[in-house]
Amino acid sequence: MNLLLCSINTLKGFYDIAGVEVGQHFYWKIAGFQVHAQVLITSWVVIAILLGSSIVAIRNPQTIPTDGQNFFEYVLEFIRDVSKTQIGEEYGPWVPFIGTMFLFIFVSNWSGALLPWKIIQLPRGELAAPTNDINTTVALALLTSVAYFYAGLSKKGFGYFGKYIQPTPILLPINILEDFTKPLSLSFRLFGNILADELVVVVLVSLVPLVVPIPVMFLGLFTSGIQALIFATLAAAYIGESMEGHH
């Protein structure tokens, strides 16, 4: 009973997190649900950038790659290396998922730093990187959690749940709690890093001339890429862990 209450409280915590608001938001009503419109708008822009890049990459592939094709092949090879390192020899089916997570977070973070979102005025709130909203980071973390359980169940069936009583049944509550807190950790890690980076730039701009915060903004571009890599690496590591069946 205590274990069930603990799981219910954890899920309730995810629901409460989705209601967290930082600043003002522009809302739309879709099918009776209230959504953050500025997050949808910027997410659609990021998705359009990724789709457009994919179309350009596959439009006219060459046997001897050109500069653009070389770049896209390098990105794909990088994502495959991350997946293979963390998941192992069965990494193939998971490359699209890990690649989607990495590229979406990477392009989202960079769009928040490079695109002039501020010039577009909204009735309430302002446009920013999709990952600047905690609802986005929670959604990405929950997708990773679903993939984590799917990988384990598809590999081992219901025998996958046997890992919760290893090496001793006494650890059952701790092992279950660990799986429920993984998406929470992923979400707060990504959201916290993005928010902290933006706060540092805002404070510096308000205190010192613009020429000083510029190097910090370039550093933010670098850390934004690192954050995307960390999220994708941890997602791949969790999937690999579930397929191996041990911690």
UniProtKB/TrEMBL annotation:
Pfam families, per the entry: ATP-synt_A
One annotated Gene Ontology cellular component of this protein: chloroplast thylakoid membrane
UniProt-listed PROSITE patterns: ATPASE_A
UniProt keywords, alphabetically: ATP synthesis, CF(0), Chloroplast, Hydrogen ion transport, Ion transport, Membrane, Plastid, Thylakoid, Transmembrane, Transmembrane helix, Transport
Compartments in which it is found: Membrane; Plastid, Chloroplast thylakoid membrane
GO MF annotation terms: proton-transporting ATP synthase activity, rotational mechanism
InterPro entries according to UniProt: ATP_syn_F0_a_bact/chloroplast, ATP_synth_F0_asu, ATP_synth_F0_asu_AS, F0_ATP_A_sf
Residue spans crossing the bilayer: 35-58, 94-114, 134-153, 190-212, 218-239
Domain of life where this protein originates: Eukaryota
Membrane topology: Multi-pass membrane protein
HAMAP family documented for this protein: ATP_synth_a_bact
Family as reported in the entry's similarity comment: Belongs to the ATPase A chain family.
Function description: Key component of the proton channel; it plays a direct role in the translocation of protons across the membrane.
Subunit structure, interactors included: F-type ATPases have 2 components, CF(1) - the catalytic core - and CF(0) - the membrane proton channel. CF(1) has five subunits: alpha(3), beta(3), gamma(1), delta(1), epsilon(1). CF(0) has four main subunits: a, b, b' and c.
Protein name as catalogued: ATP synthase subunit a, chloroplastic
Species of origin: Linum narbonense
